[in-house]
Amino acid sequence: MGAPATDLAVRIARKQIEAQDICSLELVAQQGELPAFSAGAHIDVVLPGPQGELIRQYSLCNAPGETHRYQIAVLREPQSRGGSKRVHDGLAVGDLLRISVPRNHFPLAAHAPHSLLLAGGIGITPLLAMAEQLSHQGAPFTLHHATRSRARTPFLDRIAAAAYAQQVVHHHSEGDSAQRLDIAAILARAAAGSHLYVCGPQRLIDAVLATARGQGWPQDRLHCEYFSGAPIDTSGDGAFELEIASTGQVITVQAKQTALHALHAAGLDIASSCEEGVCGTCLTGVKSGEPDHRDLYLTTEEHQANDQFMPCCSRARSARLVLDL
């Protein structure tokens, strides 16, 4: 496995403040057109910097089908590992970047009778592309966007001018309590057979999914995308071994080391990106042993199968994992 494919050369054609601590970038191809994408897709972006390159994932928020540009939006995160700071403070119009082709782990379900889109903060980005696609198709949907305040709500002017403006409801946690997000009421009012899509902070996603399941929503109508992994208590972590099935090589993962870092230190070229168990880039097959799954990428059923894991964050319950490498 090699490094993530970031072979598209793009130029920043526009950089704009969309709300407090949120900026958007419009990316255009250096030559020709960009690959088409579907709603919910994201790209890997290589961010240059004095300490080396960072690769971060950002959802595309422009209308699917546009091949003359990609648009992403980035929240300045005070606790970030450097990606948002580089976007906000280090990038300017005219800069050249490398990106990947779009990938989609958060697609719209085909032929849903109704789509309920629920976003928290910067989680609006993939859902905005979904709203564009559903509106273009004439498919019924409602978009709810929860933010702290109007000043922190991106794309207000764009949404107000859109053909689907009347299908969008904004909720603010500050100010009039009537504007606040009432998850239970929104889910209870959803049209029969609705598919639910939620993106934003993990606490919001967890609350929405728990409420939906409590109301009897079927699992196959629940769709989510996390932006970052949850904090994990690693105080009880111990060492374990990784065996490479193709060579028999055995690698020890120390208690304070990730499996991914141990693999890299042993000379194995495992592609990686977010290192939080969200993006799926480092997904690795498991031939035997029991992983300790800590990712937010694989489904519950995939966790139970124990035939793949995310070495960036997951560990082992068994003394050894045999990897399909």
Write the layout of secondary structure elements.
Blueprint: E1 8-19, E2 22-29, E3 42-47, E4 54-59, E5 70-75, H1 83-90, E6 96-99, E7 115-120, H2 124-137, E8 141-147, H3 156-161, E9 168-172, H4 183-189, E10 195-200, H5 202-214, E11 222-226, E12 240-244, E13 250-253, H6 259-265, E14 284-288, E15 291-292, H7 300-305, E16 308-309, E17 315-316, E18 320-323
Parallel strand pairs: 7-8, 7-10, 8-9, 10-11, 12-18
Antiparallel strand pairs: 1-2, 1-6, 2-5, 3-4, 3-6, 12-13, 14-16, 14-18, 15-17
Structure, explained:
The chain is α/β, with parallel strands linked by helices. It has 3 domains: 92 residues, Beta Barrel (Elongation Factor Tu (Ef-tu), domain 3); 112 residues, Nucleotide-binding domain of ferredoxin-NADP reductase (FNR) module (Rossmann fold, 3-Layer(aba) Sandwich), CATH 3.40.50.80; 84 residues, Beta-grasp domain (Ubiquitin-like (UB roll)), CATH 3.10.20. It contains 7 helices and 18 strands. Strands 4-3-6-1-2-5 form a 6-stranded antiparallel beta sheet, with helices on one face. It has a 5-stranded parallel beta sheet with strand order 9-8-7-10-11, sandwiched between helices. It has a 5-stranded mixed beta sheet with strand order 13-12-18-14-16. Strand 7, helix 2 and strand 8 form a beta-alpha-beta unit. The radius of gyration is 21 Å and the shape is globular. The mean pLDDT is 91.
